[in-house]
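Two proteins, back to back. First:
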Amino acid sequence: MMRKRVDQGPSDHVANITVQVAPRFRGEVDGEGLRRVVAEVLRQEGVKEEAELSLVITDDEAIRQLNRQFRGVDAPTDVLAFGAGADEGFVTAPDSPPYLGDVVISYQRALAQAQELGHPVAEELRLLTIHGILHLLGYDHEEEAAARKMREREERLRSQTVTCDL
């Protein structure tokens, strides 16, 4: 597990971003690059206060288990976001920064989608990270109007965020 505090510079924004990469994918994933993507998305989305979240890169089996347990879908998926808002039942210590939640990405799904779309897996991981962070910030795509708004925001962030190496 990699844990590092990322200072956002000119804005007063500071985020505690934990990036965990399953051991078998560590040589394939730019965890520091993904941490920069998360920090940039938070900055561009106007998250001004200190906040915490985690990003987990895992395999199909682990994400399938989470998908089954929390969504009732017994299949792997590319990304899951678990928000930590008050309505989700998470408790935060009184002096702790707000915990936004967890984003979990299947490296195997990301690799397959990258190959299908003809771009590097690092780019697919960046896109899935953006998608997951937007979910933590309240965006959704269940209804058409909300889906359109989320797609538009994703496109803007895709063109404005840092890229990952590898």
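And the second protein:
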Amino acid sequence: MEQAARRAVILESAKVLFAQNGVKGTTMGDIAAKTGLAKPVLYHFYASKDEILEEVIRMEIETLKKNINQGLDELDSPLERMAKIWANAIEFYEKDDFLMHIMRGNELGLPPYLHERYVMEIETFVVELLQSMIQASIDQGIFVECDSRIAAYIGYKIYQAGTYAKTETLKDFTPKQIMTKTMRIMGFGILNQRPPQDKT
């Protein structure tokens, strides 16, 4: 087996174990056993469990970014592109929920500094992507003049609350329903439908 293929097997096996048992509940021995490699061979590729963990998370974040961007260039309307971002994110998390273990209150048991770093990286990426589309809509007269970064942040937080934040309030809605309703809330808030002039 080529080295790249062995690394891929190690990372996929470790990802499953981290999701099942958390970081503290997973050992290098567990990872070696699941991959079918001897521990010395595993240590040839990775010096520690933490090194494997960081590479697994990095791999997952890069896959998320790639999936969220998929198909956006084919759409001209910023509104359609925003809807596509949400749809892509939901589709990704339905197939691979590993990052949800980080976003939902640090279920993996990461060190706090690592947890904060990865949560902020994902948030910053999505907010900046949304901001660019909201600003494009403002420039085209589709949305009212507003602070595009704040609007993007609000949209992200609405989505977050409805899809992976720990809350009972929205338990009756599916992630896809939350995405649709989020888009409507965003639309009502910033679509270019100005109120009538006050004549008093």
